[in-house]
């Protein structure tokens, strides 16, 4: 039997997105965001939900652009740091020892050390209450060649992204391969 635990912000998996922006003065900044995911296939879009008082929220509205860098397991400490300190008070790139890379396509930086990045232009926002959902059209996805599979796609085992557990407030690595998507279910037919 299932037991009610109330209305909570718990869903699995929950990503660890590192959102990159420039502030009004052109200083690069990053923040960790777990409330997000793919929101449209055509055009390709990703959504993130941020509180209005966040520095990153202001930056996105100012520049109408952001990046989403996907950190690997080796950078869990740097990713966590980017979510617990405000860019108003610290240069998070410098303090975390990360390199800001200027996107050639949108007015935002990404993290050079992280293996994958989505470059996005802001196309829509929706006020949801405590958070505002920001939808960005994915202009390009850049991936380190070292983590590509033979077909030129990111290999999750090489990217080594990690997940956030909102219930336990912890990070977890990706688990083992289970089955081929859009295929294993055919066995039920």
Automatic annotation (TrEMBL):
Keywords, in A-Z order: Flavoprotein
Organism: Methanobacterium congolense
Family membership noted in the UniProt record: Belongs to the flavoredoxin family.
Aminoacyl-tRNA synthetase listed as a keyword: no
Any GO molecular function: FMN binding
Protein name: Flavoredoxin
Residues of the Flavin reductase like domain: 9-164
Keyword NADP in annotation: no
Cofactor: FMN
């Amino acid at each position: 039997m299932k037991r009610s635990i109330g209305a909570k912000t718990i869903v699995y998996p929950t990503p660890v997105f590192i959102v990159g922006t420039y502030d009004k003065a052109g200083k690069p900044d990053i923040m960790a965001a777990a409330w997000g995911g793919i929101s449209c296939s055509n055009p390709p879009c990703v959504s993130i939900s941020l509180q209005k008082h966040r520095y990153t929220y202001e930056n996105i509205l100012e520049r109408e652009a952001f990046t989403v860098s996907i950190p690997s397991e080796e950078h869990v400490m740097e990713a966590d740091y980017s979510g617990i300190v405000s860019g108003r008070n610290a240069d998070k790139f410098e303090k975390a020892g990360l390199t800001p890379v200027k996107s050639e396509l949108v007015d935002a930086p990404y993290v050079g050390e992280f293996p994958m990045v989505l470059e996005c232009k802001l196309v829509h926002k929706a006020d949801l209450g405590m958070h505002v959902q920001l939808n960005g059209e994915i202009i390009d996805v850049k991936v380190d060649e070292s983590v590509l599979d033979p077909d030129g796609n990111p290999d999750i085992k090489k990217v080594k992204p990690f997940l956030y557990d909102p219930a336990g407030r912890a990070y977890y690595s990706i688990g083992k391969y289970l089955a081929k998507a859009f295929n294993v279910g055919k066995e039920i037919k």
